[in-house]
Amino acid sequence: MWTAVLNVAPASQQACRTRAAAAFSPRPRRAPPPPPPLPHPPRPPTAAELQHVGVAACVGGCGFIATWHQRACCHACEAGGIRGGAGDTIRHGPHCERLPLDALDLLLRPPPPRLPAHSPSLPPHSLSLLQLAALAARGLGAVRTAGVWRYDSARPPMALWLRVLSPPPELSEAAKPRRGDTIPLRVDALPDGVLEAPQLALASYRDTPARPALVFREMSDGPELPHNFVSSDAVGKLTPPPAEAAAAGVSAAELLFWRLVSTDTCEVTSMAIALCLRHMHASGILPLHDERGVPIVAYGLQSADRVLPFVRHISLPNAYVQLDPIGEDRLRLHMQDDCFPTWPKGGGTRHRLLWLQAADGREIVADFTGPQYGIEDRLAATMTPFWSAPVLRSAEGSRYIDPRLGLQLRGSAAAFCGAQLPAGVFDDRSHMSMTLRARDSVLAVLRSSGCLSTYSEHDYCMPTEFIDSML
Ligand SMILES: [Zn+2]
Ligand SMILES: [Zn+2]
Q1: Ligand nearest to the Cα of 56, by number
Q2: What segment(s) does the record annotate as region Disordered (predicted)?
């Protein structure tokens, strides 16, 4: 599936690829190299560096980052800490993220200068993009190994702590699936936008807004896994998976799991991988090559707009939904205001991709959160969502990807490999803490897989002979 996406390049590019592949044929494995010298000695980030990326240290001086609040790590710390028993001070509140400033350590220091263009040398133990994606998937969410779904790391950011319930019966009656394509209730099946919640209009940046599909949920006690996500009759008719996924044993319930889990995670996952690459780069090496074997020398984020219609899955807390009949066959759905989910501006039309550039200038975009948009590619190693595609150039010189992917690239890529991260990358505080946790989760998997090893406070690349076998 992945190769199918990549094989859309015009013939001229294919020829170019063949030449490049010859120039960059893999080198034989060698003994692991000694750790590279530390490019920059560890030091705490300066106030100016923090401000540049949109991060503030807690005013309480506790060493944590202000995540959910403007000035402090939590209200308790800002107020001087909570008093505990026997004169102890329990400094932080229950919802404090406790994210230390150290989490930004390597990110804020300049990585070594960019590798020279057309460098013919790969780092001795370089990963392919697919290897990196399959390893990263283990740090991001559920993976399927030997036919069994499980979570590989302790706190993966793409775990779903919810169960799907049957829709209220009167709503399922009023909103019968049309054209048999709904999971499980399409809001536009209700006449005249009767749903009261204004957010459900999903105003779009473009002419092709998302069509919301409602999923009724309750919280679960622990993270759910795709194979036991819904019982067979819980949500009525589910869209069958595409032929390729069905052939790989993927059920409709698993598909719904991924459509829910990938909602709103594009920014967090793409940025987490870009920050992983910067972390490796800052420790002196960028061990990644494209599918031709050409070293990746630049990385970052690429924004894109959805230009094909897509269905956005919205989970609603079942207990807070009220339905009032307003005429013959019409219903009004009310939600308690404070439990209504907030939608991203544009209804999710904007998408975020990982951007990579090889030493010969060829660009690639990659997506770890595909399936809610009708892109059903998966990593064969983990069955988790993933696709990548080459960036092409029109005759006028504009950048685009295969139109069948339904995305138009927006603006230029934001490089994460420069001396500084792009200004304000952590302006969205709610994304920041999740992104840093996702990055750390992926780095932990890379270390445990043996492709990164730590000395002092830095990582360096280790032999990867056995990685193929674990993929
Ligand atoms: Zn604090
Ligand atoms: Zn705190």
Answers
A1: 1
A2: 18-47
